[in-house]
Amino acid sequence: MVDVTQTPVERGAIATLWTEANTIQKIAALIGLALVLLAVLAPLIAPFDPLKQSLIARLRPPVGFERHKPGFWLGTDELGRDVLSRSLYGLRLTLMLALLGASIGLLLGGTLGLVAGLRRGWTEDAIMGAVDLQIAVPFTLIALLILSIFGSTLPVMVAVLGIAGWEQYARIVRAEVRRITELPFIEAARASGGPPRYIALTHVLPNIVSPLVVQFTLALSNIVILESTLSFLGLGVQPPTATLGSMVGYGRDYMPTAPWMVIVPALMIILLTFSVQILGDWLRDRADVRLRSR
Amino acid sequence: MIAYILRTLIKMCVTLFVIITLVFFATRLSGSPMETFLGEGLTAEDRELMIAYFGLDQSIWQQYLGYLRGIVEGNYGLSFLERRPVADIVAERVGPSLQLLASSVLLTVAVAIPLGVLAALYRESWVGSAIMALAFVGYAVPNFVIATFMVLVFAFMWNLLPVVGNGSWAHFIMPTIAMSGVLIAALTRFTRNAMLDVLGQDFMRTARAKGLPETVVILKHGLRNAGVTVLSVLGLQIAGLAAAGNVVVESIFSWPGIGELLVQSAITRDYPVLQFGVIAVSLAVVVINALTDIAYAVADPRIRLAKA
């Protein structure tokens, strides 16, 4: 006997998202997934140690071109290091920095926004003043200043990327908190004697997760661009460690003779920012009911 | 109205004061910058002399008050590296930066506003989609990647354009395009959305009903009304984006502007220059934003009433 009252199997959120996506969004999702896999598996799939130099294999072009050296699929750099392996490790570091930075921004901005929205008064004024200040000053300048003062090390870079964009989370969370705290169910929670911190964590926070996810994805692409730009300028992670941005930056000097040193990491940056940005835009449009009707 | 302008100006002054204070204390956090800068080359006597000369032996509060007094009096400090007033060093860089900014804003307006209008008019057809896809590319590709590919193709492969400096009009082409990419993307999106809002308004239907030609309806009734929003975006977004963009673009093309100076002083840790450069650029951005706010409020009474 078939039970007709049984509801269809609930499909996972990701499966639902997949069926709703258009072709471009599906491609972006696949590219994004592929890049993440490449980054995670870099130590396993990279054909060479990214730092290993080889004097006899310097500035060799990718396989298929004249003078190439078999095994070095995407050519070698000025020290004979494998461009493919370096790009994979660079992608890994770029993604790690971006995820760490975006998470710190989310935590910092989310907490401050939550406090500003719940506390009101001078606490809110001070936090929103800081938000306005950061919006007013171009962040590249702040980043230059911080990296110059504290040095271009990995922890400082993570801190810089974390400070970038916290103000957006703070604004979103504060606005949402102010909206939600006016709603009846919060009033009910408060009337039944729930302490403010309890209300914030169990009633307010779960209701602002969706705009935060959207902002996180949008911010990720900006942070990838910021990190690549700073590394490109020579202010990011210092050699011999490389991110995609610094590979483009250092490769510039060899562009006339060894353009692959620049093209490979630059294309990876484009693939990364494109796929992340498309996914972010898509999530934003889905979350914004006004846009959906347009 | 006057109250609104005053409030905007006061807020601007507070912002500037906070920026100056933060920048000052940030540059003092690393201990004595002279330590990192002077290295081992100097004798103990010379060292003493230099520290006294740059005022680094005073307490941090004395230095701060001295710095504030200097700003009011027009004395902004000396470059560690070049041993001359930072104001002179920065002033030399203003001209080239403004030239590049002007050419980029011109290109942006000339390209983005027509594209935005077209994207709004043909939003159902492939024209609109193609324009928005283009805007997306401008937004998602970092400007240093655009610049690098341009250099690769136009300078090294085809040998058409110069890469270094600002000697001739040909030097402007690649930096201008690299600067404009993200600006064009932003302004095209905003123009399109502003036009879409306007296209649905009653006065547009009235204008068509009067029998006006479509171009007049679009340009005179449509674009002029969308223009208020578009201009405010131009002021607010472009100041910030351009300040960030010129740091990168000027460095790539060795353009002798403020952005290149900032990167160089950050790398060589020439704090007085970096400090003054950051303050000067922030000041320009904050003042432009305040003026845009005021201009927008003058043009649109709803804004100043809403914010009052």
Topology:
The complex is a heterodimer of chains A (294) and B (308).
Chain A: H1 13-20, H2 23-45, H3 83-119, H4 121-136, H5 139-150, H6 154-163, H7 166-181, H8 184-191, H9 196-204, H10 209-232, H11 244-251, H12 260-287, H13 289-293
Helix pairs in contact in A: 2-3, 2-12, 3-4, 3-6, 3-7, 3-10, 3-12, 4-7, 5-6, 7-10, 8-9, 10-11, 10-12, 11-12
Chain B: H1 2-28, H2 33-38, H3 44-53, H4 60-73, H5 86-121, H6 126-140, H7 143-157, H8 170-199, H9 202-209, H10 214-252, H11 258-268, H12 271-299, H13 301-307
Helix pairs in contact in B: 1-4, 1-12, 5-6, 5-8, 5-10, 5-12, 6-8, 7-8, 7-10, 8-10, 9-10, 10-11, 10-12, 11-12, 12-13
CATH C-level category of the largest domain in chain B:
Mainly Alpha
Order of helices and strands of chain A: HHHHHHHHHHHHH
What percent of residues of chain B are in strands?
under 5%
* Helix content, binned percent of chain A: 55-70%
Shape of chain A: elongated
Give the strand content of chain A: under 5%
Please provide the count of β strands of chain B: 0
Q: Could you say which structural class the secondary elements and strand pairing of chain A correspond to?
A: mainly alpha
- What is the rounded Rg of chain B? 24 Å
SS field, number of helical segments of chain A:
13
Instruction: Tell me the radius of gyration of chain A.
Output: 23 Å
CATH homologous superfamily classification of the largest domain in chain B? MetI-like
Indicate the mean pLDDT of chain B: 82
Unreliable segments of 5+ consecutive residues of chain A: 290-294
Keywords:
heterodimer; A: 294 residues; mainly alpha; 0% strand; disordered C terminus; B: 308 residues; MetI-like fold; 2 domains; 13 helices
